[in-house]
Amino acid sequence: MTVAIVGAAESDLGVTGRSILTLQTQAVTRALADAGLTLADVDGLATTGVARFSTTQLGEYLGLAPRWVDSTFMGGSAAEAMVARASQAIEAGQASVVVVSFASNQRSARSRSLAGVLEEHVPEAQFETPYGPLFPISYYAMAANAYLHAYGGTRAQLAEFAIAAREWALRNPAAFRHGAGPLSVADVLDAPMVSTPLTTAHCCLVTDGGGAVVLTRLDRARDLRRMPVEVLGYGERSVNTSMTAVDDLTANAGAVAAGAEAFARAGITAADVDVLEVYDSFTITAALTVEALGFCGRGEVLDFVQDGRIRPGGALPLNTSGGGLSYCHPGQLGVLLLVEAVRQLRGEAGERQVPGARTAVAHGTGGIFSAHATVVLGVDR
Amino acid sequence: MTDLPVFPVPPPDDVTAPWWGATREHRYTVQRCAACGHVQHPPRAVCVRCGSTDDLALTDASGNGTVDAWTVVHRAPRAGVAVPYTIARIRLAEGPIVLSRLDGDDWTIGDPVRVGWVDLDDGRALPVFHRATD
């Protein structure tokens, strides 16, 4: 591959009282400043969640008329998919500097509903929504129910994903739960129940937040101010929108396929990965993604993550920002997975830095294990 | 399950109208492809196995199934809905998986279930599932 991420930044996070476009502007301009570039350098733009014409809306707001845009809607995996598309666009000469961004003010705007977004014309509106599943929570809850039944793990084991995420967040000053203290198994299991077996502590935060990454050709990247973070590989899968299309809830087949494609393109295996950033909308989301990406065998992940393996200092540093569970969850976490991966690879992650990290993987999951995209990133040092 | 539907059931479309029509008689139907034998739900304009658009027809299902996965919902998705209630994926005897409700909260994956009906104000009915007793 010949494309690199040369800038990365967060917008304000948490409860900001700011508009989507203000947060987008922060993310984009901070990521460009990080790269040593300006808005005038940008000729490619990829984003979602701004408006119906997301890239057009954001482009006008920033004073841009991009040569290339992408507003593919894949929920939490959109940013990873956009990195792939941006890389292809740059290699094809359709753009030279692409910004991939996302921001949401869902906490301040109180715009999130436990029912999800209802669209009357889709089949689910007739055949699923009338029964009152929480969306997306009840689907992930059923996946956890099916996984624990099939492989015999415990709710206490599943809690490890929330506990480890908190341990990372305690080391990240930008994390929403930075000052909240550690979590115990009892804290997770005894938290208010939402959709069995998932309590509130198994569910991601609902916060404002956003981020952006800047991509350009690797040869140009070498002349910029930051260490280039190379895009080594990518893969994606689009699987299901309903709660009933997937035969085996425990298989996470979309992540298996996206990950395998990305790893093959990059020429790596799971053993090569120093830092892993996967979408953790829920504990079970992260669990089934770690398993799907091949870090352990089928049915093994709950045993695999015990004994501190995914905590700070562990053999598999997972969601080192604190993730959606304890850092920030603006509704589409995908871009922030990339931002954290970049910081780790550049050695800028402070107290939570994984020493000597050279290869990182970000895996976005949108919807209800619906849309998946994996990106492999690396630095040459 | 008197709280159903939690959200209004939209009017059927061109493809789903016969399916909802059968619910007026408390008949559970599934769509079968005469070209390849595939059974699918919800009804749609194409067979997802063989691609046929001309060979699909509704056929009566047995009304029997098993619990594929379930969850007890403790937070209401909108104001005024009583919780808890149990949401489940039901694997129909004919093959397709459907979303529905179960009564109570004492279920194990694999439990056999049988269809029941909640009548809607417009004459249609919403299928739910109860424990199969024999």
Structure in words:
The complex is a heterodimer of chains A (381) and B (134). Chain A is an alpha/beta fold. The mean pLDDT of chain A is 97. Chain A has 15 helices and eleven strands. The two termini of chain A are 17 Å apart. In chain A, a hairpin with a 2-residue loop joins strand 5 (193-195) and strand 6. A nine-stranded mixed beta sheet of chain A has the order 3-2-4-7-1-8-11-10-9, sandwiched between helices. Chain A has a single domain (3-109, 205-378), classed as Peroxisomal Thiolase, Chain A, domain 1, CATH 3.40.47.10. Chain B has 134 residues and is mainly β. Chain B has one domain (17-131). Chain B is built from one helix and eight strands. In chain B, the strands form two sheets. Chain B has a five-stranded antiparallel beta sheet with strand order 6-5-4-7-8, with no helix packed on it. A three-stranded antiparallel beta sheet of chain B has the order 2-1-3, with helices on one face. In chain B, a hairpin with a 5-residue loop joins strand 1 (29-33) and strand 2. The longest helix of chain B is centred in the first third of the chain and has 7 residues, at 17-23. Chain B is globular, with a radius of gyration of 15 Å. The mean pLDDT of chain B is 97. Chain A binds chain B through residues 113-115, 118, 120-121, 123, 125-135, 138, 141-143, 145-146, 149, 192-198, 242-245, 247, 249, and chain B through 3-10, 12-13, 16, 20, 41-42, 44, 68-78, 81, 85, 87-89, 96-101, 105, 108-109, 126.
